[in-house]
Each structure stands twice: as C-alpha cells, then as structure tokens.
C-alpha cells in the first residue's frame, strides 16, 4: 500500500480524547491531527516522538491531517487502524500470503455473524472450495524486546469476533484470524493475556474449534507500508 501523498514529518505533543493528537510541524506550527486508533497505543504516544502525517484530500474535512506513523527509536510503527484491511487484501491478491491464495473473489466488509462485518471474504465457487472468513487485527504493542502483542487494551469487540469465527468453522467454512504487525522490530507474537484475560480465553477456544491463526509483519517507510513475512506465534 502506497501513501497517496507525501507524508509530513512532525513531533508529537500529545494524544487525547482517543482520536485527537497535537503535532508540532517542522516550521513550528502546531496542528491537530485525527488519530485513527481506538486502542490504548501503549508505548506509542510519548511526547517528543517523531511522527508522520498524511494531508487530507478533502478541503472541507474538519481535521486536515491524519496521524499515520510514529518513530519509537527502534522502528516506524503504523498506527492507522483503517489501513490493515487494505494492506492484507493487497498482499492476498498479489499472492504474498500462501495460506490464502487461489481464491476467485476477494470481498471486503461483508455482513456476517451477529450484526458484524468480516474484514475479508474469500470465495471460489468454481472449484467448490469453502469460503474463507478473514478477520484482520492491527498489532502495534511491544513491551519486551522482539515480542509483539495483542491486544493493547480490553477488547470486547475482538472477543466477539473470535466467537463468530468459531461459528463460521462450525458452519463448514474456513475462518482466519490474521494479525498484522505494523512494525519491524518484532521477531515473535503472543496474546497479551494479562491485559485482556477474556480475549485470551476466547482465542484458545477459537483455535481449538478450528480457527486458523496467521501473523505477518510489515516493511514500513514514509512512502509505503507492505507486508513482509510471517512472524511465529508464541503459545
């Protein structure tokens, strides 16, 4: 996924009210940028961190910038949670996810379950393959050297998604939980059970029911974010 416009460098002043952030630009101007991330952003919101913003294409938009990347000192990190679905969809379409190749159609945001939408639905009726329901989660948390974790806050919605994926397996479909690590400094992935024990239990139940789990990381630059390769899951 390429950024449509050159990103603008700045310095984080503060993140507040979940979806707002104040950024100082190189010329000393302070702007308020949209923060498209509902999580805690643990370890990513320290004042003084270098950040990159994308300018809004719509001049009528209230906030003219969106916060895209943060530099933690060990890696650029993609914090915009609206991008992972696009990144994963492009990678599947281009054949970079061997576990999910060969499907005839790829659809996004398809209704399923209990008033939910699946991030990616793969279908191949011509070859009589079962549909594959793919839920994508953005991973940015790192509390220990080399270890990515999810979630970074209690997520009742995430727990609900795991249960709905299990239902899809029971109905005869493939169901996939896909964790996209939007940083380059992690060599393993694990569930942050201390942050959300209920999510950890739901994750274990989903795997036992047949839900597949894949973890991939990204190459991140101010010009693009692209899927890089698999990251091992630590049980």
From TrEMBL:
Domain SfsA N-terminal OB residues, every copy: 13-79
- Annotated ranges, domain Sugar fermentation stimulation protein C-terminal: 83-223
| Pfam families, per database record | SfsA, SfsA_N
Q: Where are the transmembrane segments?
A: none
Q: Which family does it belong to?
A: Belongs to the SfsA family.
Which PANTHER family does the annotation name? SUGAR FERMENTATION STIMULATION PROTEIN A
Q: What is this protein called?
A: Sugar fermentation stimulation protein homolog
Tell me the organism. Answer: Sneathiella chinensis
